[in-house]
Design a protein that fits this description.
It is built from nine helices and 15 strands. By secondary structure, the chain is α/β, with parallel strands linked by helices. Strand 13 and strand 14 form a beta hairpin. It is found in: Cytoplasm.
């Protein structure tokens, strides 16, 4: 069986299980379950701490894992990202009290508190900055107030908690993270079970990003309409019973669907419909 690691809790857990369910895999029914066997798909799912997943995958004990890009890089494990999953996005940045520093170039001799010691240490080393890094679990905002560090490095979403602590974001983002599929470094691409798993997830990503659009238009306006809805290869065009009219079907990006519908209407298209795509293979 294919052995796959899934986050057991945290912000990645629910969306990861939801995506796997959309891909046709059995998932756990309650949070206490640590292992779920899906015999129909010949897969075993192991629900693990997100921070540990890269280590398990790198060891070769598990074939595939879903975790955060930040957690993968911070672990230093011999594993690699093979697919971004478009959820769990976050930005990792430095912050400090106003006037302390403008960016990493000013960090020489300072101490930086973070829960992601591996990422920060590598970022400083890559830039040739001589600064100390202290590892803290949980909220790191109070590290400056308590004198443990002059700088913190943490995940920043809105920045509200930092401002409430009297801190400001400085410098460029250290890392932009999201949920990713990982495998062991050096693993081959010829495992048919892994290939099928990846195709299913890619199908979910496409299905979430596109809608199917159907509409009718006059034959003389078809080229204009097709320019608006080129589809992936080309749209499907069928003649209607009423002479001079055709029916068109094409996949269009979901985020652009409303604009495309407006543009189609302006050139005379009617009966314009969109429907969700639940699964696909390209």
């Amino acid at each position: 069986m294919l052995r796959i690691a899934v986050p057991n809790k945290g912000s990645l857990s629910g969306p990861a299980s939801a995506m796997l369910h959309e891909a046709g895999y059995r998932q756990r029914k309650e949070s206490k379950e640590l292992v779920v066997i899906d015999p129909d798909n010949e897969v075993e799912f192991f629900y693990l701490r997100p921070k540990d997943i890269a280590i398990y995958v790198a060891s070769g004990k598990l074939d595939i894992g879903i975790t955060g890009r930040d957690l993968l890089l911070d672990s230093g494990a011999s594993a690699e990202e093979i697919l971004a999953l478009n959820f769990g996005r976050s930005t990792f940045r430095y912050a400090t009290r106003p006037g302390t520093a403008n960016g990493p170039e000013d960090f020489g001799g300072m101490t930086i508190a973070t829960s992601y010691e591996g990422i920060v240490a590598k970022h400083l080393a890559d830039q040739g900055i001589d600064a100390s890094v202290v590892h803290l679990d949980g909220a790191v905002e109070t590290a400056i107030q308590l004198g443990v560090a002059q700088i913190i490095a943490d995940v920043v979403e809105t920045g509200t908690s930092l401002r409430n602590a009297g801190l400001e974001v400085i410098g460029e983002p250290i890392l932009t993270s999201e949920a990713v599929v990982i495998r062991r470094h050096g693993a081959t691409d010829d495992n048919p079970q892994v290939q099928q798993f990846m195709r299913r997830l890619q199908g979910v990503l496409v299905a979430r990003s596109y809608v199917m659009m159907d509409y009718d238009c006059r034959a003389e306006h078809l080229e204009q309409a097709v320019a608006l809805t080129p589809g992936l290869e080309s749209p499907t065009v069928s003649p209607l019973h009423n002479e001079g009219w055709v029916a068109v079907r094409a996949m269009v990006p979901a985020k652009e669907a409303q604009r495309i519908m407006d543009d189609l209407y302006e050139i005379g298209a009617r009966a314009i419909l969109t429907t969700a795509i639940h699964a696909c293979r390209l």
